[in-house]
Amino acid sequence: MITRDFLKSVELFSTLSPADADALALMAREEILLKGEVLFRERDPGGTLYLVMSGTIEISKTSPGGPPTPIARLGRGEILGEIAAFDGGPRSATATAGVVAQTHLAVWDVGAFHRYLAARPQAALIILTGLLRKLGTRLRQTSEAVQTLVRSL
Questions:
Q1: What band does 73 get if pLDDT is binned at 50, 70 and 90?
Q2: Is the sign of the CA dihedral 136, 90, 147, 100 positive or negative?
Q3: pLDDT of 79 strictly over 70
């Protein structure tokens, strides 16, 4: 079950009011993936936003004619699906459940999430600022990984 306490334990949601955390918890549904199960594939349509509650999610990109390249491992408290959720485009990578037996996710419908944020500007500011910080960090990490890969070729 997704609770206010769990959401408030996640950096992205930690400064939300108790009422906003409760509302977002009630809007979410839980999804369980088994080890190795694909959550979504690169280029799939978006429409959902995910938060890892337990377990891990492996993020990979496909390369033309080559195997998928791992680019990130997300654990408890990490959000995914945010790019497609906010730009309306397809998924930018493939997400697969990691090596533990089960991965538990909180799942939000993007339309409902957007409507909630539109009605709650303070919550929107907190969440969007946190997402921008998270995206900036991921972009830097990915850029560094790509530079290391290119140097090794």
A1: very high
A2: positive
A3: yes
Q: Which residues of 82-97 are buried (b: 16+ CB within 10 A; e: fewer)?
A: bbbbbeeeebbbbbbb
Task: Give the E-state strand segments of the chain in sequence order.
Answer: 29-34, 38-40, 48-54, 57-61, 69-74, 79-80, 94-97, 102-109
Token pair belonging to 118: 């539109």
Closest CA to 47 of 98, 78, 87, 76: 87
Judging by beta carbons within 10 Å of its beta carbon (0-12, 13-18, 19+), is residue 136 exposed, middle or buried? exposed
Tokens at 67, concatenated = 């195997």
Which residues are CB-neighbours of 12 under 8 A, at least 6 positions away? 51, 77, 79, 127, 130, 131, 134
Entry pTM: 0.88
Sign of CA dihedral 34, 94, 58, 21: negative
Question: Which of 93, 5, 15 minimizes the C-alpha distance to 50?
Answer: 93
Q: Which domains does the chain have, with CATH numbers?
A: 4-152 (2.60.120.10)
- Rounded Cα distance between 12 and 62, Å, is 28
